[in-house]
Amino acid sequence: MAHTVLYPAKNFFYPIGNTSAVVLTDTLTPEEPANLLLLGCGDPRNILFTVYNQADDTERTLDFTCCDVEPAVLARNVLLLAMITDNEPSNEVLAKIWNSFFHFFFDEKSRSFLIAQCQTLIEVSESITAWNDSKYSKFIRMCNVNTLLELRRHWKLYVQAGQLSSAGKKRLKEMVLSIIRTTKATKHNGSDLLPCRSAGPYFLQSAEPASKVFQHFWKTGITSLGPQDISAATFANPTFVYSLTGEGFALHYGTTPISPFHLAPAFLTSKRNIPTMPELVDCARAQFSSWIKHFRAFVQDKPGKLMIRLFAGDALFFCRALVHHVGTGKIPPDLTVAPWNTAPLALDGGDYGHSDGVPTSFNIIETSNIMDHIGLLNVLVAAIPLLSPYPSATLFTEALLYTGEDATRNFTTQFCADVSTMSLLLDLAPINYLSNFNTRSNAEEILATKFQMSFRQYHERITWKRPMTGDPILVSQLPHQLRIPISFEPRNLGELLFDVYLKMFASDDTMSRLSDPLHSLRDLETVHYIRETFAIFLAIVKRRVNADWDSTMASFFDRLGNDTTLMMGMSNCQDLCTRLYLAGVYTTDFIRTPFAKEGRFRGWTQVPLTVSVILVVPRDKLRVLSDMDPNKLGTPILHGNLHGRITHNIFASLKVGFGKVTASGTDARPKVAFEPDPSSWTGTSPLIVSFLVPSRVLHIENPDAMSVTLSLRSTPQTSFVFMSRLGMALEIFAAPLMDRSQVFVVPDEPRGLDESLDKIFATDNRQEGKLSVTTDPQSRRATTLTARIDITDVPTKSILSSGAEVSSRQVSPCVMEVRIGQTRRSLVYPLPVIGSHSKLRIARKSSYVEVVVPIAEPLQPDGFALNRFPIPLTDKVEAPWNFHHLQLDRLPALNVSSRPRVGWIGPHLGLTMTDRERALREQDIRTDTLTNVKATIHAILVGAAGLQQQQSRAFGLTVKGNTDTVIFIPTLRLDLTSHTLVADAYVLPLNPDRLRKVEKTLAAIIGELLHVELWGDEVANWKRLLPVLAERCRTWKHGPNCEFLTKKSVPLSLEHGNDPLCSCGKGKDVSAAFMKEKKWEPATPFVTRIAIGPIFGVPYIERVGGFADTMTQRISKDLEERRDRCARCGGPGKPKLLVCGACKTTSYCSAGCQKEDWKKHKLMCRK
After folding, report:
1. 1062: closest CA among 1082, 1092, 1040, 1091?
2. Which residue has the higher pLDDT, 961 or 767?
3. How far is CA 336 from CA 185, 230, 331, 377, in A?
């Protein structure tokens, strides 16, 4: 739960989201209450869109806990939500809300509207009590007093900006205009194309209008094209002016008002094949209006069903506070709300500790793309202790940035270990890895990287769950608290953990990284992990495994001591030892070895194992950083150091803040008092830097020869910029250890993290027997799992010792069944396994049986291939495990009669298959079941869109000419959040009895029924899939006599000719589009609504889009051949060819040809 401390020379402000909104509850059943934790929540688009996508009659409770380090983001969010609930949504009001939230500049009416709303909020926020007594507290609560103070401060700044004199308002506007001009002049190539990803499958087609919206917005500050609107927007919007950077305009250069919305519907409503710029804006505004109206109605009509809790501060710090609150009920007194912010972190908003309803365990944790800024493992180790143990519990991560040259491999690089091995250690896995498919498309992102579009981003959203929750047998038969302890041979575990350590701190391996300069120089500047991260990771792993932990750590330190790769990391060893001790993971001999009370410890009554070293850094010493151009400075990393004549120890877990520190306590028990500087960066107080160290490290040399320093981490960038000013050590400030005016040393002890994690991970539910892990000695990957049953009952011991037959079989992805004679026992594994490759070990005299099974990887047999489409059962029907829920009636319908509007479907569906699967199809090899299922879905969707022949609306799933399932598709829709399409369909399973009842329908459609042949195991897979497709769009409720629950099975049958569905949904929620087809009407009582969408390959598992590489090669070859010709007209130069000044590779005969070709060329141009 720790990150490097960065000098915040330049912080981007993200008041508007840069990706389209998602439905945060789409992994839950429609009835399940949602406790949602939003880390790095950003603007409220996801909250608004989630509320919009709730059924009108929903009884679900939505409880959002929102954390963002930028108080201005939350201040804007509350301001928006208050505007929504306080005002009738007339067109005029909607326009003022849009202007206030999205425009850089606005008119007098919008300005007055915003100021009036701010004044209302200021009136009710004088204290936390006043806020909790206000009307807003019914749906907005503050997690702590500091959050309310920060939000109120911003609302007052907005009002003060509105009360400026004419000259003051003009100055403010000129400041914004000046920064806008500077931002536009800065070369951020391709940023005008960033809104294209919000168009989903129309990504490429949206390039021209989306870039025009972007350019117009950054030119005028508004989205309207009307000259009157532009001239009326004379006031700078203060909500964009104030942020953590103070008064300024620190917006990210990719900000645009249309990015938070789904732009694909504009292509459905436009009269043109490609919508205009105003049509894209109108599309976004129409969605915003709909979201607002639904949110307002939800708050008014469903009191108590919606709560939004706010915390302004660092996501990792907030998670740590929640963990301590759950575990001990106390929060460490030295925990602050954020780096560089000295405000103590207290959950004193009136709910925590006072209300049983406040969530501290969450079934949804949404982390936005904060992994780009703090690292994937930091996100996971912070969030895992807060994730609910129930089957539906889901964590989401997103990435936009990537390292290396292959964007599709970014995830596996960031995970720092083999995916199965790390999933085993964390008890959390990406479900697309276990399933080997995605229901969410990033096909267009793949194409963008293949065609080398000019912005360097790759959007990837990953859904994480506990692996065992996807095994229906486990979920139905075992308590939800089950955690299986796993055993390792200590040396193997130590070596595995060291390999994780090597990958986490690969940036310390400068020699290897510099072997690929372009790759490494960029990556060496990005350092997310410190030794505290690794210690918290081990604290979680320690609670997952049964191992001789001292021997494990001895193995780890043996490898660390002999390592010659992390040369830059050798000085971090004492930092690692400190953090392992404080996390309750391990105490090294060095730390626990006693020493004399000399030097800074002279006179102390007791010397703890760790102490806090506090360095007072004069403010003028920071001028070497503060006086530099932020664009050149970047965000250098700060370190604390202890220097001696022969020793140098680096400590990266720093606390920093401006203020005054004075000694208190006594010589026997020293303490310090800290007085923060309320002016912080604009004040005069020194910078106070503190870090924890082993007490003994202050005595490994003569204390008089030791110094305490603050320095920059050495990277190619910082060394190049600062070595001439700060010297080789990059020291900002140094003071002698014994200088009691500049250096303070006070006792410190662990803060209860060990106790908190013990409580969170404690469980009495343990599997009978033992489970051990075997790792590959070369790769350190976990390869096999061995489960053991100790036979203790006398009858079974007797038949085992007498030679009874012992056999095993796999009954589900994570369960093996052992039979001893007629006795059966189940063995549970924490990951899916390959039961067909299992081995038995039978000890008849010692009375135990072991079953050794390989871990199932995505392309191997068994595992989740046994049940690719699971629906767990508890006392209810749970949500589909690896398909997201859809509110079909909220999705826009496709007009399939317009071929240009649906022409994208063919290429889009072509990206559902990996290159391997495409090769199987081209060779007509039908042995791969998942490939066959994809091909059937492809055939259905292509037929429904009418792409290859006359459109079909009825399909028969057929085996050897025998059709037992009919699917009707009245409507194709856009699945907006997943950037794909979905068939709004109805399934009619056939059996002899039902055939008689629907014979009129079947007779009427027999000539137009498109038969799709199923192959081999595909029959059983479709029987499993149909209930999933029904559950994912369900609006009705399962009854008490539901066949799924009474028979404890989903589906009801895997056999051809049998109905796999329960009767609860038959004849329910039948759309007008279905009823419009009179031929179908007799079948209405027997059909169940389903949502059929494509399932996509997983690019980090298998290569996807290889055909695009061929296209790229052809384009490159063509460009090479045309280098001596104009790229547009093919003609010679006039008189000579001109070269594009950005990419330096494309030639034109004239400026006119270059201008006309820009719409196409900018997709490929790279500066």
Report:
1. 1040
2. 961
3. 38, 44, 10, 22
Q: Is 979 left (phi over 0), alpha (psi -120 to 50) or beta?
A: left
C-alpha to C-alpha distance for 203 and 201, rounded to whole angstroms: 5
| Dist CA 204 CA 1160 (whole Å) | 10
Report how far residue 99's alpha carbon sits from residue 111's, in angstroms, rounded to the nearest whole number.
Answer: 9
**Helices vs strands, H then E, count in the chain:** 42, 40
Between strands 242-243 and 5-6, the pairing is unpaired
CA-wise closest residue to 291 among 40, 67, 54, 111: 54
Nearest to residue 33, comparing CAs of 276, 306, 401, 384?
A: 306
User: Higher-confidence residue: 612 or 567?
Assistant: 612
567 pLDDT higher than 90 = no
Identify the bridge partners of residue 307 per DSSP, sorted by sequence position.
63
- 27's tokens: 């992994």
pLDDT above 90 for 510: no
Q: Supply angle C-alpha 998, 1000, 1004, rounded to 5.
A: 120
Other C-beta atoms within 10 Å of 595: how many? Answer: 13
Is it the case that residue 765 has pLDDT exceeding 70?
no
| Contacting residues for 204 by C-beta, under 8 A, at least 6 apart | 196, 444, 447, 1163
Structure tokens at 53: 């996508």
Residue 164 has what DSSP assignment?
S
Specify the residue for token string 């003022």: 96
Count the residues in the chain. Answer: 1167
Q: CA 977 to CA 19: how far, in whole Å?
A: 10
Helix axes 91-102, 71-86, angle to 10 degrees: 180
DSSP state of 1071: -
Q: What is the pLDDT of residue 1108?
A: 67
pLDDT grade, residue 902 (50/70/90)? confident
Given 3-state DSSP classes, what are the helix, strand and coil percentages for the chain, each rounded to the nearest 5?
40, 20, 40
Distance CA 468, CA 480 (A): 10
Using alpha carbons, list the distances in angstroms from residue 449 to 311, 445, 459, 848: 36, 6, 10, 54
Note the pLDDT of residue 246: 86
Phi and psi torsions of 220, nearest 5°: -105, -20
**Residue 410: what pLDDT?**
86
Confidence of residue 766 (pLDDT cuts 50, 70, 90): very low
- Cα–Cα distance list, 1074 to 984, 1011, 1068, 1079 (Å): 10, 20, 12, 10
Taking CA 914 as the corner, what is the angle to CA 908 and CA 918, rounded to the nearest 5 degrees?
Answer: 85
- Measured over the CA atoms of residue 1005, residue 1009, residue 1013 and residue 1019, the dihedral's sign is negative
Token pair, residue 929, equals: 């079941």
Helix 145-162 and helix 71-86, axial crossing angle in degrees, nearest 10: 70
Query: How many whole angstroms separate alpha carbon 466 and alpha carbon 388?
Result: 10
pLDDT of 452 reads 58
Mean pLDDT, residues 196-204 taken together: 92
Work out the pLDDT band at 858, boundaries 50, 70, 90: very high
Give the pairing type, strands 648-651 and 731-736: unpaired
Q: Which residue has the tokens 């004199």?
A: 165
**343 sits in which H/E element:** strand 341-344
The region of weakest confidence among 483-492, 577-586, 879-888, 973-982 is: 483-492
Cis peptide bond upstream of 1051, omega within 30: yes
Cα 298 to Cα 321: distance, rounded to the nearest angstrom: 31
- pLDDT tens, residue by residue, 788-832: 999 999 999 999 999 999 999 999 999 999 999 989 999 999 999
- Answer yes or no: is pLDDT of 1120 > 60: no
- Give the pLDDT confidence of 682-693 residue by residue, as tens digits: 899 999 999 999
Cα of 224 vs its chain's centroid, Å:
33
Copy the structure tokens of residue 452.
């080398």
Residues 6+ positions from 271 with CB-CB distance below 8 Å: none
CA angle 900, 904, 909 (to 5 degrees): 145
